[in-house]
Structures are given as C-alpha cells and as structure tokens.
Amino acid sequence: HEKIASLEYVWNFLNELPDRIGMTKITQPYVFPYSGLVPEDKGITGTVIIAESHLTFHSFTEKDYFFFDVFSCKPFEMDNVVR
User: Fold this and answer.
1) What is the DSSP letter of 7?
2) Given CB 3.0 to 4.6 Å as the disulfide criterion, which of 14, 24, 33, 81 pairs with 51?
3) What are phi and psi of 75, to 5 degrees?
C-alpha cells in the first residue's frame, strides 16, 4: 500500500523501468495524485513515454489496488517487468 500511494516511488519506478526492460525513455515520468468523481477513486497516476510507446500506472489507494500497462511495439520479456 505504501508504494502505490507514494509519488516518489511511482516516479522512480517509471523512470527506471524502461532501461531495465530494454526500452528507450524519451521523456521524464509525469506522476500526480488523482481524485475521481467517486470519493474512493483516488490514488496516483503516472506515465512515461518511450520510443517504443508508453508505460502507465494508476493506483486506487482506498481500494488497495493498481493497474500497470507496458504498451510497446517492441517485443520484451514480461518476466523482467514482473521482477
């Protein structure tokens, strides 16, 4: 829960992951707190653009879960992302 609620953790995660999975980061991560129309839909949202496409992260801290997407036109090892 602490990690998915931390702007710093999510920023560092999105900043470091492209190198770890062999992708080319072309922007710095953009990470910010989010509050939706439903009060419990709040958390951290972030993205980083890579030459191969993008990585996105969305947490819902009140519900204690998150979604993470690696979208790439370049093949990659999913096990490296999971680690």
Assistant:
1) H
2) 24
3) -60, 150
Whether 53 contacts 73, CB under 8 Å? yes
Lookup: tokens for 38: 């439903």
- Token pair 């490296």 is found at 80
CA distance to 2, 19, 20, 70, per residue, from 78 (Å): 24, 14, 12, 9
Bridge partners of residue 53, in order along the sequence: 50, 72
Q: Minimal CA–CA distance to 19: which of 8, 29, 9?
A: 29
Give the model's confidence band at 46: pLDDT under 50 very low, under 70 low, under 90 confident, else very high. Answer: very high
What is the reported pTM? 0.88
Decide: helix, strand or coil at residue 21: coil
CA distance 29 to 68: 14
22, 54 in Cβ contact below 8 A?
no
| Type of residue numbered 43 | G
